[in-house]
Amino acid sequence: MPVTINLSIKQLETFRTVMRSGSVSEAARSLCRTQPAVSAMLVSLENELNFQLFERDKGRLTPKPEAYFLLEETDAILERLTRTSQLMAEVSNLSRGHLRIAAMPAASLYFMPYVIAGFVKDRPDVNVSMMMRSSMIVHDWIAAQQYDIGYAEMPKERDSIHVEPVIIKGVCAIHKDLPLAQKSWITPEDLDGVALAALFSQHPNSEALRLLFEERGVRYYPRFELQNYISGFELVERKLCCSVCDPMSAASYSINKSRQENVVFRPFKPDIIFEHAIITPAHKPLSGVARCFIESIRSGLNEFMPPGCFVE
């Protein structure tokens, strides 16, 4: 049956100080303890180990070979403990950690890197892993507790995830040289029979837009069906279509094109609502760094998105 040895940090610290100072009296002064207290600590250590570490002759201690072996191990243990204490202090101060983020394409290309860049600027020891996947995969990854934070379209209710809604209003992408670009906002009547770049027909936002056009008695013409709106902006640039899209994709396009921007964005009325969400695992406590990063996402949304795009 294996022997259980219970060593204390105080025993190891006392032993190391005695070995380094060369005497009990010097160790006592260094540790601000009495000599009897230091001697008693060494005896308790030897009793726990069940062998002697020192030869004792007229009050003098001579380390045995076992003492030098234990000193190497003690140095490693106490140095590891010191490093661990420092690391945990940094984690507590939100200056160290590892974030695992999963995000849908509209958020991954520019928005999430924008937030990450601001967050890690003064945190050199925070590492980030970010994966871009469809919203459904992001939902599943967060539900499986594989990632700390997700940003995606609003998921269906499920017990394994916590959802913080981000509700935003759609905008219309138009080539800057078209007459529609002169309008303050765009309506379904303005897009009667106009070629559009839209998400695939089964997507809830495409279905909502189709129904709105039908209610208004105007023709809905999704000439291009795509997986994401950002892909459609190239088609808008070529004057092949317009696009009723989410403002996050619109902001990403504006950052990408900078001064060469040929597509302008106008509010679309009545509102077409896009339901996004910040998603976290329901059964896994968030680290302090992850909680702080979610605050950065919230503030980043207000900085990144066009004014007036949020549903109050």
Description:
GO terms for molecular function: DNA-binding transcription factor activity; sequence-specific DNA binding. This is HTH-type transcriptional activator CmpR. This protein is α/β, with parallel strands linked by helices and 312 residues long. The protein is built from eleven helices and twelve strands. Helix 1 crosses helix 2 and helix 1 (9-21) packs across helix 3 (35-49). The radius of gyration is 32 Å and the shape is rod-shaped.
| CATH homologous superfamily placement of the largest domain | Periplasmic binding protein-like II
Give the helix proportion (percent range).
Answer: 40-55%
Quick one: CATH class of the largest domain?
Answer: Alpha Beta
**SSE ordering:** HHHEEHEHHEHEEEEHEHEHEEH
**How many domains is the backbone divided into?**
3
State the low-pLDDT regions, or none. none
Q: How many helix segments?
A: 11
Please give the number of β-strands. 12
What's the mean pLDDT score? 90
Q: Please indicate the percent range of residues in DSSP E strands (runs of 2 or more).
A: 15-25%
Largest sheet: 5 strands, mixed
Strand order of the largest sheet: 4-3-5-12-6
Class by helix and strand content?
alpha/beta
Q: Tell me, what's the shape?
A: rod-shaped
Quickly give the CATH architecture of the largest domain: 3-Layer(aba) Sandwich
Measured distance between first and last alpha carbons: 68 Å
Q: Over the alpha carbons, how many angstroms does the gyration radius reach? A: 32 Å
Please name the CATH topology of the largest domain.
Answer: D-Maltodextrin-Binding Protein, domain 2
